[in-house]
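Question: Send over one sample?
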Amino acid sequence: MLDIVFANRNQSYGAYQLRRAYPRHLGRALGMGMLLILCALVIPEILNAVSNAFPEPPPVNTVLVMGPPPDISAETPPPPTLPPTPPPERAVQRFAPPAVTPDEQVSDEHPPAIADLINTDAEIGVKDQASTGEAPPSLGDVPELPVIVETHAKDDDGEYSIIGVQKPPTFPGGEQALLKYLAENIQYPPLARENNIQGTVALSFVIGKDGRINNAEVVKEIGGGCGKEALRVLQSMPNWLPGEANGHPVRVRFTLPVRFRLQ
């Protein structure tokens, strides 16, 4: 059949030579494939036979023999005990708080000068006491001095983050009212609708002490005019309830995500 097909054609090269050599190549490939399959089946058996020819040595049992316990005599005297050392004491400088006392009970002893109390390392107490060594500060014999707490209303013009205030700013009516306001006032840009643009626009702004929105900007844009539309609705919002830090209204940086989605 091959000679009939290529009777009037050049048989020196080309398809004739490929078809002529095809049975030889096919037989060679079949033989190599069978040889690989045979090796895959025989090699595990050979390895198993070799491993059985050289068995592993049996485990060695090791026995640990312990000696007799040491001889403890009941007549061994206990170690000597040292007398307790008295704890060291710190130097104390007498300074009694001022108190209203009748004239006949007032002594002529003058209190120490303030400069002496500042320059000394001694503690303040109700009596003078010399130091007997280095000792940690003690809470004993400390006079009950009047405590004066000064509070100043701080007018802080700095800018806080949302996590740096005790009371974050809120939209009038809460989060649900904010979502409702955005849904009712945002108009989907026609360009974004035609190009099927969807995503989330992030707005960053500062809520002042009076609740007004300042320094509004778009920090994440998705294109199609969505960022401009979200910024327009943000600037038309009513005043928020300002955030508080230490009981006072402060300026707070707020980030608001606005999601655009086509139904």
Observations:
- The radius of gyration is 48 Å.
